[in-house]
Design goal:
Elements: E1 3-4, H1 6-9, E2 16-33, E3 39-59, E4 62-69, H2 86-98, E5 103-110, H3 120-135, E6 138-139, H4 142-150, H5 156-161, E7 165-169, E8 173-176, E9 190-195, H6 202-208, H7 217-229, H8 232-238, E10 240-241, H9 244-250, H10 252-263, E11 268-271, E12 278-281, H11 285-298, E13 304-309
Parallel strand pairs: 2-10, 4-5
Antiparallel strand pairs: 1-6, 2-3, 3-5, 3-7, 7-8, 9-12, 9-13, 11-12
Length: 324
């Protein structure tokens, strides 16, 4: 069980600000459908430098508000009301788990596209859970926190763990992966993310998915090996998403983005998660910037782009390392 610092229960701490980082799936396999209707997955998931900003303020009740919104124009601007927001659910779940008597006001500066396969809602929920442990003065064992996160969404445990993660099952089994340092001038993994400006329903994509479209074991093994070695070329060749064909059949523009990234020289282009965002792996920062410019030009400026780096070692949680 979690342990609460009694002093935190009755005093107003200062507000806490932290980053909620988006994720991409470098590999994603749908291995089968379970009896409960969910799908068994295996995925290499890594946070990226694109992030929302979360501000937590002591309060008597729990609510979520959006301070600023900077999202792709043309669609996906229907932000959830407080009670429907995953951040509110996360705060309520933690409050119930530890018996905390008060609440929190969650303010979000939104930068991660909605319905984009980048885990924005899950990233925000994970950040809220991390931050509230600091704000509320609670110490929660890692296993207990990850189990709580798994009830909120399949990406939440991986984003709570932080860094490059192998995610399995319905997201409830997560383990850290060590990514190698690529041969770039700054030793970073650079990518361009391209979003078409519309939402994709994750539930719809899974409902349409053909379970025969998965990876062969050698492909997965080779992909992980390339990532661990920091081999950019082999890593680009090993990118795999068994949902991609399903997404491209319904959304031709997403397929055009994949094609354009290939044409402008990406080392590998892939739909992230269930879409609609696509990322392209670059040789270095300047290559990523050049690809972003060319893709926008070829698609008449009708897409949103961001240059990002992978965060394979994760980001410092607001409360420091999780307790073992």
């Amino acid at each position: 069980m979690g342990v609460i610092n009694p002093r935190a229960m009755f005093t107003d701490s200062e507000s806490l600000e932290l980053a909620a980082h988006a994720k991409i799936n470098l590999t994603l396999e749908v291995l089968g459908k379970r009896d409960d209707g969910y799908h068994d997955l295996r995925s290499v998931l890594v946070p990226v430098s694109l992030h929302d900003t979360i501000v937590l303020e002591p309060a008597d009740t729990i609510e979520t508000v959006f301070d600023e919104v900077d999202l792709p124009p043309g669609g996906c601007l229907d932000l959830p009301e407080s009670d429907a927001n995953l951040t509110t659910r996360a705060a309520r779940a933690l409050k119930e788990a530890i018996g905390y008597p008060r609440g929190v006001r969650i303010r979000i500066r939104k930068r991660i596209p909605l319905g984009g396969g980048l885990g924005g809602g899950s990233a925000d929920a994970a950040a809220v859970l991390r931050g509230l442990m600091e704000l509320w003065g609670v110490s929660l064992p890692e296993a207990e926190l990850l189990a709580l996160g798994a009830k909120l969404g399949c990406d939440v445990p991986a984003l709570l763990l932080g860094g490059a993660v192998l995610m399995e099952g319905v997201g409830d089994r997560v383990s850290r992966l060590e990514l190698g340092c690529p041969e770039t001038p700054d030793g970073k993994w650079w990518l361009v993310i391209v979003n078409p400006g519309f939402c994709v329903s994750t539930a719809d994509v899974y409902a349409r998915h053909d379970l025969s479209l998965t990876s062969e074991p050698p492909l997965y093994i080779n992909a992980v090996s390339a990532l661990k070695e920091g081999d950019l070329v082999s890593a680009g060749q090993g990118l795999f998403n068994s949902l991609q064909a399903t997404v491209l059949r319904k959304y031709p523009l997403v397929g055009m983005i994949v094609d354009q990234l290939d044409q402008v020289g990406t080392l590998g282009a892939l739909v992230s998660g269930s879409g609609a965002s696509v990322f392209g792996l670059a040789r270095d920062e300047s290559h990523a910037e050049a690809m972003a410019v060319k893709v926008k030009q070829e698609l008449d400026g009708a897409v949103w782009t961001r240059i990002v780096t992978l965060l394979p070692d994760g980001v410092m949680a607001a409360h420091g390392p999780l307790t073992p």
